[in-house]
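Feature request, filed as a ticket because there's no other form

It would be nice if the structure record came with a short human-readable summary line next to the tokens. Right now we just get the raw output. Example of a typical job, pasted below so the devs can see what we mean:
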Amino acid sequence: MALSDTHEHLPSQANDEIGEAGPSSGMKRLLCAEPLDASPSRFPRKSLSLGLFVSWHTLASKSRHHCLSLKRLSGVEELQGLARDLMQRAFSPGSLPPHLGSPASSRLYYHFTPDMECLSLPSDVARTTLKLVVTYDGWEYVVYERPLRSGAPLADDADTPLLVTVVEFESTALVIGHLGIRVQLVSYPMVSVRKDFIDDIDFRLRTDPDNFKGILS
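Raw output as currently delivered:
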């Protein structure tokens, strides 16, 4: 299944971007594959959670970082509030990228949305770096990292473990005196992670947490 970057210039600007392929393994379905509503009769296990670490870098060698906690969704249809509105404005009906709108998307990807709806985007950001962070038993591990990119689709896009939908937009004008001030905002309404990639991370963390190192970052 080929995945491609998508740019929309509607009331908001959307960039559905993907990066290089990451590691994958056999079919190991653990916590991430459990139903969204776990049965209360199950024995409680240590929690594994995901976060998206966003770093903005300027040409002046300054950087700003945000760690966004991710909440599990079954798909785009479960989005609410601003995230849902932005996705509807950015993508017309039937135009969602394959990893969000195709029948195979729920089979290949887990879908998440950040707990923070949007961030104020500095005007001098030259590049953005994305990191996928796993938290388990009080420890955080960076398991995947790459730059945010745009442009033509790559041949191996279908194998990338992390896909992030990015929507940039302006706030409603705030009038101070005779001046109207707008703020540039950015939202990451949908974060999709390949199931085989994160299930492998889940399996290795639970079976041998002492020797799990993540990646150096």
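Something like this underneath would help us a lot:
Residues 1-12, 18-35 have pLDDT under 50 and may be disordered.
The chain has one domain: 6-17+48-210.
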